[in-house]
Amino acid sequence: MIGDQTRYEVTEIKAIRGTESKTITSKQQEGWELVTQQEGLLRTTMTFRRPKPKPPWKLWATLGGVGVVLAGIITVGAILEDDSDASTTDAPAASSTEQHSPQPAPEQETEPSSSADPMICDTTDPWSLRDPCTFGQTAIYSDKVRSGQVQLEITVGPPVEFTPSENAITAYDLPLGPVSVYFPVTIKNTSPELVESSILTHVSNAEQGEYDGIREVSDGDIDSFTVSNAGSLPVGESLSVKEGWSMATLDGVEYSLSIDGLSGYTIEFTR
């Protein structure tokens, strides 16, 4: 029977070439089964699956029956109460209606609201002098390149610290810094038509700058290099990821996205 067939949940992991075995071991310990493995130039895309837990149908059926009985009792009680009170409440209610006709509420003066949304960071004019976006805001990106019009809505949350597991992966197995964080990133493609674009991300801080020891880290559902996949998002779809980074300090931390290289421009997010 179809109802007895095993249902699976599926996840896709991109691992740096040479670190596939660590990723497979980590996911297998969590109950995942490797389904496919496709090697790319820099990364290997692996698909895993595991059985979904079966829903407790008997428990829900029992609770549903109890809910029906309680609903019936409450309904009967309400009907009996309405019948007993009808003779005493109808007359006063009518009298009150005749004596006190409702007066229109006085119009309240409202102050004009600001049209600027504090959660929106407008970056549609790449050549204007503007402050960086703030973590938690949504940047509105719009730029015309040779291949067409690129429009994106980019939201980057503040960095979230986490403790890496023994299966954490960095490029070339370089050591982790004292602080490991991930940035929640969501990108939605609002372009009028599908246009391929390139997206590169960078992180810097007050002590290390951008390249002095700051490196990407992957660990479980925290991944690196995945934001670049948003460059080929279908129109109207979104990508949400946790992008991991390791560094010495969060003082002066900044996150930036460079879109389409020289054809586009860079959007920065700060505290």
Blueprint of the fold:
Elements: E1 8-16, H1 20-29, E2 33-39, E3 43-51, H2 57-99, E4 120-122, E5 133-134, E6 138-145, E7 148-156, E8 160-161, E9 169-170, E10 179-189, E11 199-204, E12 215-218, E13 238-247, E14 254-259, E15 266-270
Parallel strand pairs: 4-6, 5-15
Antiparallel strand pairs: 1-3, 2-3, 6-7, 7-10, 8-10, 9-12, 10-13, 11-14, 12-13, 14-15
In short:
The chain has 271 residues and is of the alpha+beta class.
Describe this structure in words.
This protein is an alpha+beta fold and 271 residues long. It has 2 helices and 15 strands.
Which descriptors would you attach to this protein?
alpha+beta; four-stranded mixed β-sheet; 271 residues; 34% strand
Largest sheet: 8 strands, mixed
Q: How many helical elements?
A: 2
Mean pLDDT equals 80
Order of helices and strands: EHEEHEEEEEEEEEEEE
Measured distance between first and last alpha carbons: 55 Å
Structural class: alpha+beta
Taken from the alpha-carbon principal axes, the silhouette is: globular
Helical residue percent band: 10-25%
Annotation, overall tally of beta strands: 15
Beta strand %: 25-35%
Radius of gyration: 28 Å
Which parts are unreliable, with pLDDT below 50 for 5 consecutive residues or more?
86-98, 109-114
